[in-house]
Design goal:
Layout lengths: L4 H9 L12 E9 L4 E8 L6 E5 L17 E8 L4 E2 L1 E5 L2 E5 L6 E8 L1 E2 L5 E3 L3 E4 L16 E6 L5 E4 L2 E2 L5 E4 L2 H5 L3 E4 L2 E7 L2 E8 L6 H19 L6 E9 L4 E4 L3 E7 L6 H17 L25 H18 L5 H17 L8 H6 L8 H6 L5 H17 L6 H11 L9 H12 L4 H8 L7 H7 L2 E4 L13 E2 L2 E5 L5 E6 L4 H4 L7 E5 L2 E2 L5 H6 L6 E8 L2 E8 L1 E2 L5 E4 L5 H11 L14
Parallel strand pairs: 1-12, 18-19, 19-21
Antiparallel strand pairs: 1-2, 2-8, 3-7, 4-5, 4-8, 6-7, 9-10, 10-11, 11-16, 12-15, 13-16, 14-15, 17-18, 20-21, 22-31, 23-30, 24-25, 25-26, 26-27, 26-28, 28-29
Helix pairs in contact: 3-4, 4-5, 5-9, 10-11
Length: 610
């Protein structure tokens, strides 16, 4: 029987170096001193040391985001004293390490001011209504005390409530962690919230929402219960007894981060409805829930024990993130949180966006995983690299289908994840590419080395027609409800952003697309089409209706100089739908049901005139 993650973290701590007796602990206290200006004071009590100095650190990154964030820039006025209150000398060694001289080798108290205004990064944020505290951006640690139990006690304004995946301590607004790794993976949300508690199976859940918005807490709870049920079917065991959903309804921040038995999800406050926006929210919740297994329960060798001060490299981050992106939709549709057509709509959009990306033939998925720490956005990234989330999802789609076909539908990617969860518990070891390949061969009797060379280590084009055809589905241009033959959408191969003053700036020009061939470059400011002004308000509709195959003149500013260029729009290669085949066989329909958990819908009648 799989041990609960709480116990796993205890086992993990046993592998870390100890410098003090097991009964000792690290105590953290945080007082919110000026919430309007995002300020707090932190105190840390550390045990006696075996050396005449003590090095303390703040992580340079946070779990779930593979990017150096240099979080120590939020700390000021760090001082240290001994048990008697005498000042100890502190010297900063590098950007996130301080050395404290401690000749008596006694207990040390560290205190510092914390500036917490990084809501979008989901690290730390304090204002008059709440505080979100991810320990990686809040609490320093000493490597030789990393394995010790830790307590956190907060001093917050009256009327606030505090929640975390950690167990509660004896004092109000206090929590207890098994060790620093547990603390880092258990963010705290304190403040004024909407709150629900509920159960599923023998597991307890909490839903805490900060901020007003057009969300429906009852609908959220109903669907989160459904996700629990389908996760039981998928992994068969749970690594937690209690799970916390933290939701931030904000004015702009988006994104989400997984933790060992909790998650934080951020969305603009009025984007929980209508239905399309709610589907986006609930599949995000499913994504973070899947991470409870895929990365928190088992993870690749390069990241299985976090080094908080530097990059943790792995060629398998695509399996962690893209694999989870594949399963968030599967869990949502299998649990009937979303419908089959909603699942297929999102999948078609993902395939369309991927198919437009020039970088898909320039960088392998394994290389993109390794380079995730320096991954960029924008023009160069679009043209020269792939995204581990989007391509990782699509390669997982192909891998799942290949397993089903090779095993005569006896096995699927579900079995691979169950095996990784069973055989590679995060407290003991991380898995390698060779381990996944060995599991695949054991399940199917076939060698998947060619698959790996082509689609993971290489840049071979993904065969979506083959994988979808296995389930009786096909890619096609979008079909209007009228049933008439669809009009193609014009495509230039650009991405536009609004700039101050109302100008439209080309943030991306895709290699070998119509705009690229016409001589446009990223940074050009688009002001008119065929002598008529174009603005952010009408750009999408104007450009989508450009005549396909006919040259038009675009008027731009480049480096302040007015220029005109001719471009010829093409039909949008990314405008796709996934629909059931008219002649889908009984075998294909069975495969579809085994895959998504419900019968295939009836196909849409052929378009008139097709």
């Amino acid at each position: 029987m799989k041990k609960f993650l709480f116990a796993i973290l205890v086992n993990l701590s046993a592998t870390l170096p100890l410098a003090a007796a097991p009964a000792e602990r690290v105590d953290y206290r945080l007082e919110i001193t000026d919430p309007v200006h995002h300020l707090a004071r932190v105190e840390v009590s550390l045990p006696a040391t075996s050396e005449a100095f003590l090095d303390i650190h703040l992580p340079a990154w946070r779990t779930g985001r593979y990017e150096i964030l240099n979080l120590a820039q939020g700390i000021r006025h760090l001082v240290a004293t001994d048990a008697g209150g005498n000042a100890l000398q502190v010297k900063k060694l590098n950007k996130d390490t301080w050395r404290i001289k401690n000749p008596a080798k006694g207990a040390v108290r560290v205190s510092y001011d914390l500036y917490a205004n990084q809501l979008a990064e989901r690290v730390r944020h304090i204002d008059a209504s709440h505080a979100f505290l991810d320990a990686s951006g809040v609490f320093v640690y000493a490597e030789n005390f990393r394995a010790l139990p830790a307590t956190v006690t907060l001093k917050v304004p009256d009327g606030w409530q505090s929640h975390s995946g950690m167990e509660r301590g004896e004092a109000p607004h206090s929590f207890v962690a098994e060790n620093y790794d547990h603390l880092v993976d258990s963010p705290i949300e304190t403040g004024i919230h909407q709150y629900r508690s509920f159960s599923a199976g023998n597991r307890d859940y909490e839903l805490v929402v900060w901020g007003e918005g057009n969300y429906d807490l009852d609908a959220m709870v109903e669907d989160l219960v459904k996700l629990d049920g389908i996760a039981k079917t998928t992994w068969q065991e749970f690594p937690f007894r209690r799970y916390l959903y933290i939701v931030h309804a904000t004015d702009g921040a988006r994104g989400a981060t997984e933790h060992v038995n909790s998650t934080v999800i951020q969305r603009p406050r009025f984007l929980f409805a209508p239905r399309e926006e709610y589907v986006s929210f609930i599949t995000t919740a499913a994504h973070e829930f899947v991470h409870t297994w895929n990365v928190k329960g088992y993870r690749p060798q390069g990241i299985y024990r976090y080094d908080y001060l530097r990059e943790n490299y792995s060629p398998l981050l695509w399996f962690v993130e893209g694999g989870t992106s594949y399963y968030d939709g599967l869990l949502a549709v299998r649990s009937e949180v979303i419908t089959g057509p909603e699942f297929l709509k999102e999948l078609a959009e993902d395939i369309g966006k991927y198919s437009q990306r020039p970088g898909r033939i320039s960088m392998s998925l394994a290389q993109a995983s390794f380079d995730q720490w320096i991954a960029d956005r924008g023009d160069w990234a679009q043209n020269s690299s792939v995204n581990i989330y989007s391509k990782g999802k699509l390669v997982s789609l192909l891998l799942d289908q290949a397993i089903r076909e090779a095993s005569n539908d006896r096995h699927s990617l579900d079995d691979v994840h169950r095996r990784l969860y069973r055989d590679f518990p995060v407290a003991e070891r991380g898995y390698r590419e060779a381990d996944i390949l060995a599991i695949l061969k054991e399940l199917t009797g076939r060698d998947f080395d060619n698959f790996w060379r082509n689609y993971v280590a290489g840049t071979r084009e993904l065969d979506f027609d083959k994988v979808l055809g296995y389930y009786g589905l096909e890619l096609a241009p979008p079909m209007p409800e009228s049933g008439a033959a669809p009009e193609p959408v014009a495509w230039l191969g650009i991405k536009l952003n609004s700039a101050p003053g109302g100008d439209l700036v080309l943030s991306e020009v895709w290699k070998d697309g119509p705009a690229w061939q016409g001589g446009l470059v990223a940074g050009d400011r688009l002001i008119a089409v065929d002598n008529y002004r174009i603005t952010a308000a009408d750009a999408d509709s104007r450009l989508a209706l450009l005549p396909i195959g006919e040259a038009v003149t675009l008027h731009i500013f480049r480096d302040g100089q007015l220029m005109s260029v001719e471009v010829t729009a093409e039909a949008d290669p990314g405008a796709l739908t996934i629909t059931p085949k008219q002649d889908a066989s009984p075998a294909q329909k069975r495969r579809y049901q085994n895959w998504l958990g419900h019968p295939m819908p009836d196909p849409v009648p052929p378009a008139k005139g097709s």
